[in-house]
Q: What sequence folds into this?
């Protein structure tokens, strides 16, 4: 070994110490940078020379690599925890919004509106001749209908907001995939199978973590340094090619539905975790569910009240009356889907009464509603013909309006009333009804009653001063209905509210537990990948002394060479 070899040893030590100082300084500079991964300069001794048969001398030191401290297993678990936490937080937020819309136990909630409505009918049953109480019944009905429409409208706004948020998050996910594809290409070109482009990998990891907060993505490492990303078995990113994601809206009988699919070939993505998974699940299971609940409540309320009201009498008969529900096909059986009626009409009969206004003489006619499924079932046209043939002209004129509604007109000097409807045909067609509309989106009090409360049916059986209809409707407050599995209308709504409350409390607990899991895993990652300034300060002093010692060593070798040259 000569002095020249000694100089090479000193030079290698200087190069390594300088590189190690740069790595340490970079660690300290990025100690607070989100997503930064700690690096260390890895040294390898160089091969030396043989001095004699028994001895070797060293050849210095070489910087073999700059190691990036990453635990991929922990990273995978953190991404799963991020998805779970974002799913819990998003679900908690949505459920809280819906609870605030319901606003139960405040006195201005839907349960209170239902109670006030039925209480008004109960008061009317006690005072059937009081016009002011009739007006109160109409006003409470209007208030209840407005509350139902408002709640459903706010539910619909939540669903619209979900769709808007989902579209924004899908757009961001698509951007992340595009950026990750570009980083994959840059990493492959920079590393070329050797070394680690730490900064580029840190950027990519941050993007993947962000994507994991949106959807349950899995990562597959490739030997080239690139990664492939999947949702389930569907690839989103392959090397430097992003297959993209997009949101598609479809219109169904239940309203607009959203699907998330790959931009490349339209493959459906089954996203269960992350904020996107929470939005999709909450939309279908929660928001669509509460909309269905309030529509069911409104539909049941409309039909049950109308079924009783349509058979009652107000003391003032109709000169003419028109159904509020349109039959799509007047030649289709009344109980068929082709008829398009919102409420089911069954086999039975209905009583139509003609009263001579001058003599108060009443004539009753029974109209059979043939819907037994044997032979030809009754259509709207058949019903019109049956009324005209049974009662006969000119006492009454039954017709189908141009838009498919039943129209009944009494002859001059006569008025119409109804009773004993075992088929539900009056409620089904909207004749002499209290409510109009089909569900919570369009429920309203029949405009005829709003315009003239004297048409409000209070009595039954054509008994003067009777309260049978008012009493029957008031009893709906506490009467279990077969169509609601034995529950009352108020119980139906209360059970929906309670179910939502349980879900909200569960979501709060899940969000809290997911946060704890994520924080624990991030602490584990920080132990591996995080920067300790104390440790880096010690390293800095160590490498500084190494650099100084290497420089002093080179200076000593240089002095020896100068002495040797001067001797020669």
A:
């Amino acid at each position: 070994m000569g002095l020249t070899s000694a100089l090479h040893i000193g030079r290698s030590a200087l190069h390594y110490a300088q590189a190690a100082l740069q790595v340490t300084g970079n660690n300290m500079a990025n100690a607070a940078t989100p997503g930064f991964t700690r690096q260390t300069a890895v040294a390898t001794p160089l091969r030396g020379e043989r001095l004699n048969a028994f001895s070797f001398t060293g050849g210095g030191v070489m910087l073999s690599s700059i190691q990036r401290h990453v635990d991929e297993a922990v990273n995978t678990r953190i991404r799963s925890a991020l998805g779970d936490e974002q799913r819990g937080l998003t679900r908690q937020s949505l459920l809280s919004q819906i609870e605030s819309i319901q606003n139960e136990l405040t006195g201005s909630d839907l349960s209170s509106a239902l109670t006030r409505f039925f209480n008004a009918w109960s008061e009317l049953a006690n005072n059937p001749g009081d016009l002011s109480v009739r007006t109160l019944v109409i006003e409470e009905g209007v208030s209840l209908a407005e509350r139902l429409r408002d709640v459903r409208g706010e539910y619909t706004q939540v669903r619209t907001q979900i769709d808007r948020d989902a579209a924004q998050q899908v757009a961001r996910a698509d951007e992340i995939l595009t950026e990750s594809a570009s980083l994959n290409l840059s990493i492959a070109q920079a590393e070329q199978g050797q070394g680690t482009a730490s900064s580029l990998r840190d950027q990519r990891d941050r993007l993947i973590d962000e994507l994991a907060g949106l959807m349950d993505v899995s990562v597959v490492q490739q030997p080239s340094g690139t990664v492939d990303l999947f949702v389930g078995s569907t690839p989103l990113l392959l090397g430097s090619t992003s297959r993209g994601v997009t949101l598609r809206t479809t219109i169904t009988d239940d309203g607009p539905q959203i699907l998330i699919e790959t931009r490349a070939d339209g493959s459906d993505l089954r996203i269960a975790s992350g904020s996107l998974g929470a939005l999709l699940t909450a939309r279908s299971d929660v928001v669509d569910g509460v909309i269905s609940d309030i529509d069911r409540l409104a539909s049941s309320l409309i039909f049950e009240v109308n079924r009783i009201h349509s058979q009652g009498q107000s003391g003032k008969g109709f000169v003419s009356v028109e159904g509020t529900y349109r039959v799509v096909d007047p030649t289709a059986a009344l109980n068929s889907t082709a008829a398009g009626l919102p409420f089911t009409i069954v086999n039975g009969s209905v009583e139509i009464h003609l009263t001579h206004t001058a003599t108060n003489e009443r004539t009753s006619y029974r109209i059979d509603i043939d819907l037994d499924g044997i032979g030809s079932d009754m259509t709207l046209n058949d019903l019109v013909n049956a009324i005209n043939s049974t009662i006969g002209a000119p006492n009454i004129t039954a017709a189908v309006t141009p838009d498919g509604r039943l129209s009944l007109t009494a002859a001059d000097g006569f008025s119409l009333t109804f009773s004993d409807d075992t088929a539900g045909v009056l409620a089904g067609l909207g004749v002499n009804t209290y409510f109009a509309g089909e569900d919570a989106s369009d429920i309203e009090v029949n405009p005829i009653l709003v315009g003239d409360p004297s048409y409000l049916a209070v009595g039954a059986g054509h008994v003067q001063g009777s309260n049978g209809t008012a009493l029957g409707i008031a009893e709906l407050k506490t009467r279990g209905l077969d169509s609601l599995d034995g529950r009352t209308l108020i119980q139906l709504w209360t059970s929906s509210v309670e179910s939502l409350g349980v879900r909200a409390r569960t979501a709060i607990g899940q969000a809290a537990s997911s946060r704890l899991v994520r924080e624990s895993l991030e602490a584990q990652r920080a132990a591996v990948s995080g920067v300790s300034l104390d440790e880096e300060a010690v390293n800095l002093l160590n490498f500084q002394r190494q650099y100084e010692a290497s420089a002093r060593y080179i200076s000593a070798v240089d002095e020896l060479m100068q002495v040797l040259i001067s001797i020669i």
The radius of gyration is 40 Å. Residues 3-69+530-567 form one domain. Residues 35 and 206 are 6 Å apart (CA to CA). The chain has three domains: 3-69+530-567, 71-314+461-529, 319-431.
